[in-house]
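User: Batch of two.

Assistant: Item 1 of 2:
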Amino acid sequence: MSKDEQNDIMKKLFKHDLDEAILKVFFYLDPDSLKQSRCVSWEWNNFIMYRMWNSKTWRKKLKRRLESRWRNRRQVPITELAETGNTVMSMECDEQTVYCGLSNGG
């Protein structure tokens, strides 16, 4: 299904005020996709902000779902490094690694 077809389906749902169906569509998106969905249109942004986040019921459901995703995600292996005696001055990270800047410049 193309993005245009998906947009048409969502437009029809909005046009016919099928809020419960729209809520379920947005609910099953991962957090990044839900955030990106707010950028699609003014209508989508307002719906997500006011019908999902301002609804106690849906906000509670979203919170439980996010907590569940966080608790059940794949564990990241931790590798301990030898004691260097240096102080960690800065830290940066990407999706896989944490980088530490040490007081000795290492």
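Item 2 of 2:
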Amino acid sequence: GDDLPEDYDIIVLGTGLIESIVAAACSRSGKKVLHLDGNMYYGGNWSTFNFRDLEEWLGGDTSAEPTGSGQATPDCSTDDYCQFLKENETVLNIGSGCDGSVIDTDVAVIDRGSDSAQPLPQEAIPSQSELSVCDDAPATAEEMVAEQESISDDANTETTGLCAREGDSLQETDGNGHEDSENSSAVESAAAEDGEHPAGNSQNVQPNIEEDIQPVTWNAIKDDWRRFNIDMAPKFLFSRGAMVDLLIKSSISRYLEFKAVTKFLTYLPNGTVQEVPQSRSDVFSSSSISMVEKRMLMKFLSFCLEYDQQLTEYEAYIQKPFIEFLRARRLTENLQHFVLYAIAMKTEDTPTEEGLKACQSYLQSLGRYGNSPFLWPLYGVGELPQAFCRLCAVFGGIYVLRRRLDKAVVDANNKFQAIISEGKRLNASWLLGGPSHLSNCMSTPLPTVRAGSRGVFITDKSFKPGTAESVSQCTCCD
């Protein structure tokens, strides 16, 4: 039987990052919290999947879930729930948590030497019952697009990093995201170490012979499923950002391990990938910019660090695009690209003051945990909401995954009273959830959100191989 208590201070629907932070804060302040999620995993659209979990997510395999789990019940009249209602109460629909922010997922292959991606057959997009079709297919690729998504802008929350005290040595991990720059993409290596080939292709290989390099196949990626994770909402964390401070202050950093993002790449208009210099020594040792450009770049970055104290230098450009200000500073096209896309991670129509603030945030984060402004959770960004969930549970929060959410109960004044879930009334003073759960309960319509396409690429080698293993970030222009 269902042994859940019936009364709470707050019920939270969904285990995304925002919901998890609020749940942890309420639990730590002494509130009785019930945290529910219809999925069988934490994080919602902030989840991190290994390749097997990604296959299930792409294929929509729900065979392991109980009937109706994670789904809203069909519309029913108040009479169907009258046994749960008190006088003058009525019910409202609760969404399933699937808000449509991730749509049109597809899998494609980019062959070596090909300029276009070829979609895999529909049967190759992995539902568990159909994977055998894909298993035998000799789909060769240098890059496999694991997914393509349209995401709503509400996922673009401020990113930051987490770690121990300032000056402490860094434990482990990778990071992702500036303010979810639309030009930024996180590259997660699924390849083997130097000289090692994907599983099943490593025997009798003669090194240094291009013809003997075996292609990546779907089976090879499946065999290496433990070697990499894929973030649904990749974010980098600024080492001096608000999230880092929150994780340290709340002691949540003890639940996580991080790694610095050590290689910053940018795709130049001439078709080459260049490493972005981070420090003064990197700038003057870089071969991608001339000596004159190096002095210009150092002077401009010094200005960005204290731009807010030099209003007269940029006030004429406050409402103008950042790219116009860069041109006015007489930066070369090469430097404009470095600053706009690799450091500020903005677009050409970004206002000047916003671009300068982005450069300042980037530069201020350098040096706190090594020669990098960013951190990334070692096992993926999905660890962040899970860490807040752990804190909530430590202070008495109750968690139930794979729980069907039926109805919200409100009184005659439209004030929340309870939810009905799997045949049980759960009372609370407050109900918290995202638009995917509570849009039907809102008295005013939700604002229109922007959307964009995103691809996750699994590659058989780094965009720019180096001598040491590194976590890399690569940016490109529009």
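Residues 61-74, 121-211 have pLDDT under 50 and may be disordered.
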